[in-house]
Amino acid sequence: MKKLILSIAVFAGVLSANAQTPVGTVVSNFNLTDINGNTQNLFAMLDAGKMVVIDVSATWCGPCWNYHNTGALNTFYVAHGPAGANDAVVLFVEGDPSTPTTGLSGGANGASASQGDWITGETFPIIDLATSASFTASGLEIPYFPVMYVICPNRTVIQSGVAGAIGTVALLNSYVGTCPAPASNPADVAALAYKGSLVHCQGAYTPMVQIQNNGTSALTAAAITVTQGGTVVSTGVYTGSLATYGVATVNCTPIAAFTGGALTVTVTTTGDALATNNAVTANIATALIAVSQYATVNITTDAYASETTWKIKNSTGTVVSQGGPWTDLTAAGQTVQTPVTVALSPSQCYTFEIYDAYGDGICCNYGNGAYSVTDAAANTLVSGSAFGAMEASVFKTGILGLNEMELMAVNVYPNPAADVVNVSFEANNQDVAVALIDIQGRTIATKNLSNLSGTQVVSFSTENVAKGSYIVSITANGFTSTKNVIVK
Known about the structure:
Blueprint: E1 31-33, E2 39-41, H1 42-47, E3 51-57, H2 62-68, H3 72-80, E4 88-94, E5 126-128, H4 133-136, E6 147-151, E7 157-162, H5 163-166, H6 169-175, E8 189-194, E9 199-200, E10 208-213, E11 219-228, E12 231-242, E13 247-251, E14 261-268, E15 279-286, E16 288-289, E17 294-301, E18 308-313, E19 319-323, E20 335-336, E21 340-343, E22 349-356, E23 370-375, E24 380-384, E25 390-396, H7 402-407, E26 410-413, E27 420-438, E28 443-461, E29 468-476, E30 479-487
Parallel strand pairs: 3-4, 4-5, 9-15, 16-25
Antiparallel strand pairs: 1-2, 3-6, 6-7, 8-10, 10-13, 11-12, 11-14, 14-15, 17-20, 17-21, 17-23, 18-19, 18-22, 22-25, 23-24, 26-27, 27-28, 27-29, 29-30
């Protein structure tokens, strides 16, 4: 689906169903011809030791035009391009292949009118893409307009996002000097990024690190040590042949019965010229443990609910529960979807995964979406809101308690309901709160009952309740159970 711009605080636009290329990505090369017939080779610029800033816009895009008119790119290029410090390059890429080159000068622009003259007064190279693949083959996606990427000489993306948010003159100036020095020594290996999971459930844990050859000669061997509190807890070895700026991910030896904490990963090679780029650190959290085997998935979608789905997988990767998609709204906003309570196996590790088919998460440009997985005592096990195409978190189940087992024996009838909703459940000397809640999370009716035992039936009249989907919530002894009901 092509999302249209709503009202947001930063410049943004939309094109494809891919997420933006994340920070830390090592890109491939491209050769693109600018409107003056000059070839722009990405690696040639990077090999010259220059930071490369790329703004991808479309001539029909209003937010792109707003950012263009700030003059930030031209101001930065004058200061840091060939006429200035000569330590950075700026490329402007018209990223919609369906628009003709004439749109760049404010002329004919195909089906969509050009916002104006994009060329006059600009000193940096301007590229009009004939095909998006000629750009995205480098690993740089075009998920929306205007998207910006800042790339260091070691081929690594250090900034990515909406141009208006990350491309102010002050921010662009601040990125200069943050890149590692270009390769100049025969042997120089770097720990580029930590790649292991940042949340561990139980048992053995495998550290992973991405290394890069920052040397001018091929890297054939490297040693990795992983320490915790100064003690070596894992090791790894790289063997092969990495060309300059080549990368590899190394799996280290498992850490038995790992309980989380801070890890320092250090990589070295024979004759290593630079020690300052040898280490990365990571803090590994341990999964939260539910009070029982019951977990409730709570999803609030943004306007594009049809793009959102979720799964719960067990430790073998088997999907044991899933939900979504839902129905879109006609404008920006959010919808509280009906919670789903899942009975899982006790004392097991599970992964909750949430997906956005478009790749821009569920918050916050099109509504304040969010998600959480809670246990039977309403403790939050995992949660989030803003993410890209997918986010995953782990949690562990506990052991079912007697009171909860009794409370979970809940029946709601008739369903669909016309005049009345009946809620039956088993109680054992309990105080119980029963509520009827709409899908926006608002309580329609509630009943608080004391010292109940045996089979109970609580009824809600639906005479003055609007047709639609509702949630019945039953809480006792700190445990909550939910059931879905439709009022017709």
